[in-house]
Amino acid sequence: MFEDTWRTCSKSDSSGASNSGCESSKESSRSSTPVLDTDRTDRLRDKMRHRTESGDHWFSLEFFPPRTASGAVNLISRFDRMGSGGPLFIDVTWHPAGDPGSDKETSSMMIASTAVNYCGLESILHLTCCNQTKEKITGYLSKAKRLGLKNIMALRGDPMGADWEEEEAGFNYATDLVKHIRCEFDDYFDICVAGYPTGHPEAESYDEDLRHLKEKVDAGADFIITQLFFRADTFLKFVRDCRAIGITCPILPGIFPIQGYQSLRQLVKLSKLEVPEEIMQVIEPIKDNDAAIRNYGIEQAVSMCRVLLESGEVPGLHFYTLNREVATMEVLRQLGLWIEDPRRTLPWAVSAHPKRKVEDVRPIFWASRPKSYIYRTQDWDDFPNGRWGNSSSPAFGELNDYYLFYLKSKSSKDALLKMWGEELTSEQSVYEVFTSYITAQPNVAGHKVMCLPWNDDPLAPETNLLKDELDKVNRRGVLTINSQPSINGKPSSDPIVGWGPPGGYVFQKAYLEFFTSSENVTALLKVLKKYEPRVNYHIVNVHGQNTTNAHDMQPNAVTWGIFPGREIVQPTVVDPVSFLYWKDEAFALWIEQWAKLYEDESPSRMIIKYIHDNYFLVNLVDNDFPLDNCLWQVIDDMFELLDNPPEEQPAEQPAEQPNDEQSDKEQPGK
Amino acid sequence: MFEDTWRTCSKSDSSGASNSGCESSKESSRSSTPVLDTDRTDRLRDKMRHRTESGDHWFSLEFFPPRTASGAVNLISRFDRMGSGGPLFIDVTWHPAGDPGSDKETSSMMIASTAVNYCGLESILHLTCCNQTKEKITGYLSKAKRLGLKNIMALRGDPMGADWEEEEAGFNYATDLVKHIRCEFDDYFDICVAGYPTGHPEAESYDEDLRHLKEKVDAGADFIITQLFFRADTFLKFVRDCRAIGITCPILPGIFPIQGYQSLRQLVKLSKLEVPEEIMQVIEPIKDNDAAIRNYGIEQAVSMCRVLLESGEVPGLHFYTLNREVATMEVLRQLGLWIEDPRRTLPWAVSAHPKRKVEDVRPIFWASRPKSYIYRTQDWDDFPNGRWGNSSSPAFGELNDYYLFYLKSKSSKDALLKMWGEELTSEQSVYEVFTSYITAQPNVAGHKVMCLPWNDDPLAPETNLLKDELDKVNRRGVLTINSQPSINGKPSSDPIVGWGPPGGYVFQKAYLEFFTSSENVTALLKVLKKYEPRVNYHIVNVHGQNTTNAHDMQPNAVTWGIFPGREIVQPTVVDPVSFLYWKDEAFALWIEQWAKLYEDESPSRMIIKYIHDNYFLVNLVDNDFPLDNCLWQVIDDMFELLDNPPEEQPAEQPAEQPNDEQSDKEQPGK
Fold it and tell me: Pathway involvement (chains A, B) (predicted)?
């Protein structure tokens, strides 16, 4: 918070925002069928009101943009982890010196956009107006709107340099920015402003500062977040004083769990706040013991928050996280505000972009790469009807660049080499990497395999149910990258597989997706004839050679839910059209993430390249969801056929050999 | 067949159809998701080819338009019954003297349209061109296309009067009509023409007649149906002769089961056919014994059809039904062609109108009145997305006229009075009518109640499962008009509740809809509080006073199916918006069908009118489909509350009394 020079001006005259040139930018709302979560259609201020009226307590989290691209990748992982605890919103600070409105991975704008679009978090973008032209500010706001951001924290910001003076027609105060937003964008954005429980350090007086806060609210702000403070009484008095002069909007206390001696010192300097004597007395003696200070900080924050919540004046708490998670999460856990087992609205994370809120179906292929899916479909107009029918489908984004979430791993090259092998000696050594990942056992070099190119995270709890079977088949070169078990009507509240509103039932068809050799595919196709029409399959290689038994290329729903008073929800499909787009990405990951770890022409790289060039990507669906999953039996039958082939009939060439022209190519490492 | 003067001309020169002014009327095809029955998207000629290629035998049925409106109602019931046996198509003959292209209920055009739109039957409309202007013929064809008809039987027809002469620019031959259809409507219609196994009676020779048939096919006909014949050899020789001169299209034999002496005599006279001596020798001695003749006719038709089918030249049989069903059905049963247990594509009959083929969801309210539903939504543009959301919904057809299928009963006033009571003495006597209908037991006057205003047919087999419960509640004034049991994953092949393609599973939520008094509703609303959110309800009276616990007025899917390789199909919903349109119709049926049986101001009429004015229409859904249906328990709890009310609290007026202002009105018959 203090890093982004979050201040209002104390000067008395705060008019100046133009009221001319207003244009209404209200958007027509469009409703999807069925709406599972009424929150999804609400604005932040409405959600806040509903939660407050229901007597529910909630929390929000503040982050600042990282300095480096790898810092950005880590922060976004943190968004996912901290997002799972159920914050009402997060906010991202604005750093005028850091090109905050640019398209850089580390800009405030892109970090906030990522939180909304990829992590599905309701987000507030900070914006400072000091020393900015109206055109520039309008440009930032238009861009934010285009990216799906709906909430702005309107700040003055620090003057750049000591010789700053008020400009006649420019922005001198946060009030000017609030007025400008309302004028140019009507009621589109929810607007938040800053409050100072001890008065702004530059303000003439506490009362004068309160009057300026009232002006900001009167100009159109929807709620207030306060600067941090150290005593509950400070905040509670501030709220009383605000109410007394007619400020009626929500006022959220800014909570700062002390996390270390240095960061506290820096804070004191930047924010010109005084740390109370009783806190300094505790901290000074333990200033070299980080753990002790953090534990004290947690304890101090918890007890202060308890007083705030019990006062009845505080519906929610806003946390200055300093981009760290341990202390804030611990405070929230102790307060009982952290949602340990969040209810999922759909089996995948719903994007918070206003346009994507209505999205209600996705192909299963990107289940482990949702950010890539969102990136590739970001220009789609129509998500609720986002089918991929032959003629009606808008194209997927092209596979032509390397976006942050697209083909890069979040692990370093060194870490990847440790996990996936410094040196590969055969296809079998690739199989062993898959097996180590599945079983969570160390690989031959003693390192745990925490990710694969297709799976950036360890196995999901749901997939863990299949671990033994997955282990067995991966050892034999059925290299699984995605699977789900069948589910026949589990309650929507089930902690592992449940999703959607209470009182419902969720279902799944068993699904298995893997890479495997063309020899295996030849046997598999023979075996699959016994499983018609129970099992649907799609089999494709990198060249697009494609075999399927799908009806008319129709999508197959593999996850669905039945809920009280709703239509059926079917959020995950095996879609034949999108599979051919996924194929490009799935094969590219062999090369981009794995082969390129090794030197050109090295045996390791050639092994991965051979797999990329010759293996097939296979997906199987067992349609008979009430019965035991037969897909393992299909693979067993395939192995059985390979192990005990029927007597040779030399004159006959198997008709279903899908990759004949490749079969006599040299196979390295065999 | 002979009634519509179905003949081609034997004159040699059959040119004359204009080739100018052609316009393409190809329609863009639009695919729905998911397509359950690939047949639904095919043309008749494609279906015929698929069935023939598969080695399957099939049949079709010919009908003529009835003379009276009540005859039309009966014929349409026959369409439903005979349609259930699985004909590939039906055809409707054209009677130039009977205003065949008009909007009258009895016209050929309207009968064929009804078969397509309301009965979901693939249908061929006959059309004769003799003595017609091109404008008139084009007008008929345009109207047929507009009504959803896609197949035409192109005939010359009899000249009107003896002084007929060829017209220069008019239609003299069926060939002219075929050419005209292809010219004006491109490939839109499938065209059938007539063939004469013994030569046309007016033809110069058998060979000359064959050459004219070749001309008709060359002009664009897709297949041939023959005039009736009495010996299999006659037809098989005809087919050989057709093939010999290059006629390659399907040739369907016209089968006429002899059904009586008089109809056979009439046939002989009109068609100028000779009945073979071996048949006359059997028939003459039994000419006064109708049953014996019909049995002989069945036996003769079956043995001839067996020879035809075994020849390998005959993929399907076309039956001249004379609008009767017994003989034809018996022949088909003995041949094994009648489908005793037809597979339903969806739980309701799919309309065969090209525009409606993609329709995949309907409100449950019209389950027993599908024709009324189709009529009221006939002007909708968009059936597959036919949701009834608050803003997006097109209006239902207005309740402003009395169409054939709309508010009239197919029974006569006399029959209705016998079933529903010559004289009603109380509301209780109305309850007894409902109970008699449910239990299929005679009413107090000894008559079976075969229908109710809301149910034109006896109880469906599915509803029969609920008979005991329905009986119990109707006796106490819970007047049920629609219900379905819960189903938790029965195979799609289930003979009673199954629908959709094989290998799937069907599901239902329990549903119950009834009229009941405002006293009962007051108790019911108290009881329903215990069943939140398990039970959804909508309760409305004729004045539109409406109570519901539906989320945001969203539809609730109450029938759905899961199939191999498809998305989820959810064909039946409880839709809050459409319920308010259904309410108008459901209440109107009390007055239009029942009250109006009795004299103005008569006690019987006043009793029905009282119910109409004061009762509520209630629907209940039990969302917890895997558990036992709780809706009977809800009704039991309501009775329990009524029988044993909690102690009086005199000062308190029940808040949920929904119809308070009506409660002190005089109640006749109580």
Answer: One-carbon metabolism; tetrahydrofolate interconversion
